[in-house]
């Protein structure tokens, strides 16, 4: 059993660990998944964004090094075998990496199941929007994933929506706060904590720790 004694720490304590806009631009990696050319690629790179463009992915794990993923909903996701193509890819990424910022490229209306899958995206837009709009989109995404508070809020919302009880979420929240404040992921890696989690949750937390948490801690050193 894992007990939390005394007054729990507040996530708001982590505000002092938020990176500057310049640091976020130079650090956070952005992935574009699109089988067609991405017209804003070079211009966004010239504006300081770290963007990698690929035609498709064969597994969800390919997006692990990236905090922000833009994905076309047509012509990608062939290896996944779904008729819903990129919408399915976005949905699967969200399940595996709840804290990542997802942008769906779509300009057409779709059926109800498409629309349900696309709810997993943080933003829906067309690839052809002007450069200033793209800069604003990516700056907002950077400020979301680059703020330790926001990163946890996204995970917490995912856990609560998924039906995990508030005590389990509180356990994880306290371990997360301690990890960031101590600049050491050990509290979230604790075998005692992981063994106390409901079935299926530990692998998700291990993945979250290895990507989001370790990334934040590296930026603090």
In short:
The chain is built from ten helices and five strands. With 221 residues, the protein is α/β, with parallel strands linked by helices.
C-alpha Rg, in Å?
18 Å
> Please, how many domains?
2
- Reading off the top of the CATH hierarchy, the class of the largest domain is best stated as Alpha Beta
Q: Can you tell me the residue ranges where pLDDT is under 50 for at least 5 consecutive residues?
A: none
Q: Shape, please?
A: globular
Terminal Cα separation, in Å? 33 Å
Strand order of the largest sheet: 2-1-3-4-5
Secondary structure tally: strands: 5
CATH architecture of the largest domain: 3-Layer(aba) Sandwich
Please, what is the average pLDDT? 91
Could you say what the CATH topology of the largest domain is called?
Answer: Rossmann fold
The major β-sheet equals: 5 strands, parallel
Task: Give a structural overview.
With 221 residues, the chain is α/β, with parallel strands linked by helices. It folds into two domains: 18-145, 3-Layer(aba) Sandwich (Rossmann fold); 148-220, no CATH class. The chain contains ten helices and five strands; from the N terminus they run H-E-H-E-E-H-E-H-E-H-H-H-H-H-H. Helix 3 runs parallel beside helix 4 and helix 6 (148-161) packs antiparallel against helix 7. It is globular.
Topology, element by element:
Elements: H1 21-27, E1 29-33, H2 41-46, E2 50-54, E3 68-72, H3 85-96, E4 101-105, H4 112-118, E5 123-125, H5 131-145, H6 148-161, H7 166-182, H8 186-189, H9 191-196, H10 201-220
Parallel strand pairs: 1-2, 1-3, 3-4, 4-5
Helix pairs in contact: 3-4, 6-7
């Amino acid at each position: 059993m894992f007990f939390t004694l005394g007054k729990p720490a507040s996530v708001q304590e982590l505000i002092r660990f938020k990176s500057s806009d310049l640091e976020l631009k130079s650090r956070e990696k952005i992935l574009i998944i699109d089988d067609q050319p991405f017209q804003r690629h070079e211009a966004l790179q010239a504006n300081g964004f770290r963007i990698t463009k690929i035609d498709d992915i064969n597994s969800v794990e390919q997006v692990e090094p990236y905090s922000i993923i833009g994905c076309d909903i047509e012509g990608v996701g062939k290896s996944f075998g779904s008729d819903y193509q990129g919408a399915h890819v976005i949905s699967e990424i969200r399940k595996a990496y709840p804290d990542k910022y997802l942008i769906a490229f779509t300009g057409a209306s779709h059926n109800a199941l498409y629309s349900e899958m696309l709810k997993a995206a943080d933003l829906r837009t067309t690839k052809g929007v002007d450069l200033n709009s793209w800069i604003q989109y990516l700056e907002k995404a950077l400020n979301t994933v680059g703020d330790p508070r926001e990163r946890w809020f996204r995970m917490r919302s995912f856990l609560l929506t998924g039906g995990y009880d508030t005590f389990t979420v509180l356990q994880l929240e306290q371990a997360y706060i301690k990890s960031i404040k101590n600049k050491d992921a050990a509290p979230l890696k604790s075998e005692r904590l992981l063994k106390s989690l409901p079935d299926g949750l530990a692998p998700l937390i291990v993945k979250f720790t290895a990507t989001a948490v370790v990334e934040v801690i590296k930026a603090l050193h």
